[in-house]
Amino acid sequence: MVKMKKTGFVLMTIALMMLFVSCEKVSPIGVLVSGTGVEDRIKMSHLYYSEHKAEVKVQRADELDEYTFLVGADSHLTTDDGRMREMLQIGLDNDDLLFAHLGDIADTKAEYYITLEDLIDEYRWKYAKKNYVEVYFGDDVNEDKDLKDDPDYYIYVDTVEEKSYNVRDVPFPFYPVVGNHDITHNGWALWSNIFHSSFYDVYVLVSDDPLLFDHFIFLDTANGTLGAEQVKLIEQGVLDGKEIATVVGQEGSVFRHTFVFSHTNLFRPSSLQFASTFAREETFFLLKQFDKWNVDIVFMGHVHKWDEQKNGDTVYLTLDSMCEANNPAPGDYLVRVHVKKDGTISWERVKMNYTPKK
After folding, report:
1. pLDDT category, 252, cuts 50, 70, 90?
2. Torsion of Cα atoms, 233 then 236 then 237 then 242, to 10°
3. Which of 79, 186, 227, 308 could be a cystine partner for 38, CB 3.0 to 4.6 Å?
4. Where are the alpha helices (DSSP H) in 18-81?
């Protein structure tokens, strides 16, 4: 128990010491509804995190023999939420530690984002019911009315971290990147009001003694470019995790594995030719940065075409679109990654069975 509390203290300290760049120009939740390019998105994202440092999420897998995470891409959600619902249900049923999405999550229309947000709220509640201790207090508020179908009358207790949440604050581990369809027609305002940031990282604790983490890095490539601001922040080491090393006080790296998530793909499917969307200089910058980060797998979407490549020690997986309009028949549109306690990584393609509504 003492060891558990020590780990919890370290994780809290890590969260509080995350340093992010702020700006004085734009809102962190997307109220800038026109002309929001990659430079402003990156500034907005770091402003958000500069004001929410204590909310940086560290997922725990230190007591697991294996953890898994699920990746999907290009759902292009409209009024039919079937494939996105299926992805979240597959992840929930399998106890995946986290779910990542590679952009173009919805086609840019307000009603589609309302559908998306309602769906995420629904699965946040399902996730809370499955993973936390549920406390209902509706009878204390109104003993004459049944409020058990209203999430506002529940508290969810994390007995490991000794925290309690109302359902809206439960840290649901769904981590998307932003795609080009997400930012058209002023869509960044809709996307950012749900997800807040387009450029961030997440940590998975894999060992308590010594403290070791797996690192998940999410890049903003929605415009087919990193942009000057994002390159500058990467060069400054914003995503290097130096703050964790400082807190832990260990010599050597505190990271075991690193995974990167991007909407835009680097390689053309079925060849080693570079994709035309990134500038050549940015492509080489990313390849060198992935070597520096010792990235194990880079996940990409955008082209709606499955592809697997390897460059150096890094595997590059480009996922097909999970959208029922693009791929109406059942198919292997998701990827699940297995990460074992001994550090072994394997992955498999996961079939989706949902077909479009008639």
Report:
1. low
2. -130
3. 227
4. 38-50
